[in-house]
Fold this protein.
Amino acid sequence: MTTRPLGQPDDDTVEQVHQVVAAVVELGGAVGWLRPPSLAEIEQWLQGWCQIAATGRGQLLLSSVDGSIRALGGWRAGQPGPVGHVVELSKVMVHPDARGGGLGLIVVEALIEDARQFGAELLVLGVRGNNHGALALYERCGFAVWATLPNGVAVGEHRFDDVRLYRQLSLPATAIVHGTSAGGLGGSRPGVDRQR
């Protein structure tokens, strides 16, 4: 098994990524498409990831088994400034025929390390509430739930919870953590009536 950054996709890479995405979506996987995308849509999507990678603020990683791409996942940093240290993981998927071999764990661990090298302090991601396998994987990788938006994902008539998870990677030694303490710019005193 090998994991590598996307790079400029050739026709073979586009075809292999298309096979993974289409197979996952066909089974109802929550990876951003409601129907299996076309080859042209995947090519455009991969070009978008190349543009993100060119900024240095994100990357799509591809995991191969015996030379064939069988899993992938991406990370993207927030805009430079107050949320530039927060990185979101997304589009983590494993071809259904390759599940059970630890590829999901390999991809997530590679994404975490890649984001750490970028300088991420905090990782976030979202999972459908009924995706118990993904939730268990992320918890195994050190993520914890910070919020659940009931019925936050709509697929036709179906509604799913949107479960948000986080993992703190590091904090600079000079960081002053305020958490939920009141005060400072934008802070409010506890118990202050909010007027409209």
User: Anything to note?
Assistant: The first strand starts at residue 2 and ends at 5. The CA atoms of residues 178 and 184 lie 9 Å apart. DSSP finds four helices and seven strands in the chain. The radius of gyration is 19 Å.
